[in-house]
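Page 37, continued from 36.
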């Protein structure tokens, strides 16, 4: 399936796009194979590369947060995905959020315009010959999933993901909504829908009585806590939402001068500020029920839903059983995997896996030692996580807990995290220098 002297990258999501870029910039011809628009997954709708199907937030940017550290590492490695994200940003306080259409367009244009990247729009049902990187994402086509299972000898694992609804800005009742960022971080980037105790209780009762969309049999096995549906979270107790995604801490309703009982936050979706998503409202309520129940939120009584929340299947490998260093298949080092298929969870984490898989594969093809990003960096710690045996392997986001511990004590969580970031950046610079990356 591979042409001479080229690497096949299957899937042009975040991981595949980053992998193709990192290979091409090192002078390696790439065949980037994307199934859209020949076939779409249940969650995708655009033919562009790096399509975001859940939130448009790429999380925090500051170095006291592991997501911010990962961005710093990707920036040091000349990540195409991060560069395009920063060029497509929309206001989101201390987080990096993007206009998803502009972001996808920038990634697509960069790759389609690269002289060493050949784009093929085709459905792949068998694993490609090595050298190759498979980055087909959490919604890998069933035929290819079966092929992976046959090749590895273990079955893929499934878990749920849920996408929050998006509403139009001009359909909101701004007499009830106010602008502010929680804890006063950043500018007034979020729209806030304040609730009284009575409004919250009425909303909660309606949510608990709402009708859910049915799941397919294959979707009933696992629920991944990292993207929990709001109705499942609410079922844990009446106050769970009020102390979770609807917590009012750090927010004052200008109409009353007091902290509301609960607050639903809306985050800007696009550069124009015409679309907003309901933060923390991933759901599998039926669409009619979403309009009815979420319409009880003050300010959303007449909201126009540009996209309703959906549930979809996700697939990831049992990484410790099948993956070796740098996302390589244990018994075929030149065949690698990347993205959420490997067991990393999150946009930037998927990007990171594509980068590591591609950079290391490029050196292997040149007969050079592969880089060891070490457990001091998020890049290395994520790679280590997916190949480390555990009692119950689960997908992992970037977090300081997966990094190597500091050899000395640092007082205060924020100070400790910032020191871990400083150590990580120094370690990455040493890797870049040692391997001439």
């Amino acid at each position: 399936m591979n042409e001479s002297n080229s690497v096949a990258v299957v899937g042009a999501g975040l991981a595949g796009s980053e992998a193709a870029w990192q290979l091409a910039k090192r002078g390696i011809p790439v065949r980037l194979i994307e199934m859209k628009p020949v076939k779409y997954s249940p969650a995708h709708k655009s033919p562009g590369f790096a399509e975001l199907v859940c939130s448009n937030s790429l999380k925090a940017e500051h170095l006291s947060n592991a997501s911010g550290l990962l961005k710093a590492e990707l920036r040091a490695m000349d990540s195409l995905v991060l560069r395009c994200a920063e060029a497509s940003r929309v206001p989101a306080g201390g987080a990096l959020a993007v206009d998803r259409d502009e972001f996808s367009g920038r990634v697509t244009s960069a790759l389609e315009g690269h002289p060493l990247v050949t784009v093929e729009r085709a459905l792949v049902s068998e694993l490609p010959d090595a050298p190759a990187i498979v980055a087909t994402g959490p919604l890998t086509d069933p035929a290819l999933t079966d092929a992976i299972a046959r090749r590895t000898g273990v079955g893929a694992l499934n878990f749920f993901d849920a996408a929050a609804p998006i509403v139009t800005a001009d359909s909101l009742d701004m007499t009830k909504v106010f602008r502010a960022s929680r804890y006063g971080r950043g500018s007034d980037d979020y729209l806030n829908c304040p609730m009284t105790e009575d409004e919250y209780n009425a909303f909660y009762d309606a949510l608990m009585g709402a009708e859910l969309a049915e799941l397919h049999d294959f979707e009933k096995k696992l629920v991944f806590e990292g993207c929990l549906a709001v109705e499942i979270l609410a079922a844990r107790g009446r106050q769970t939402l009020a102390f979770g995604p609807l917590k009012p801490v750090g927010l004052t309703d200008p109409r009353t001068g007091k902290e509301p009982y609960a607050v639903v936050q809306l985050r800007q979706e696009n550069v124009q500020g015409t679309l907003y998503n309901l933060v923390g409202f991933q759901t599998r309520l039926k669409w009619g029920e979403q309009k009815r129940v979420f319409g009880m939120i003050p300010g959303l009584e007449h909201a126009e839903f540009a996209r309703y929340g959906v549930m979809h299947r996700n697939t990831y490998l049992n990484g410790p059983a099948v993956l070796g260093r740098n996302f390589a298949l244990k018994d075929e080092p030149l065949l690698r995997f990347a993205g959420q298929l490997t067991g990393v969870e999150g946009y930037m984490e998927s990007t990171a896996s594509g980068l590591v898989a591609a950079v290391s594969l490029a050196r292997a093809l040149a007969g050079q030692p592969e880089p060891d990003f070490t457990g001091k960096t998020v890049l290395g710690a994520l790679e280590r996580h997916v190949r480390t045996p555990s009692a119950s392997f689960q997908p992992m986001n970037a977090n300081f807990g997966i990094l190597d511990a500091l050899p000395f004590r640092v007082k205060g969580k924020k100070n400790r995290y910032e020191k871990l970031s400083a150590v990580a950046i120094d370690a990455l610079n040493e890797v870049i220098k040692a391997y001439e990356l």
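The radius of gyration is 22 Å. Flag for discussion at group meeting. The CA atoms of residues 66 and 401 lie 9 Å apart.
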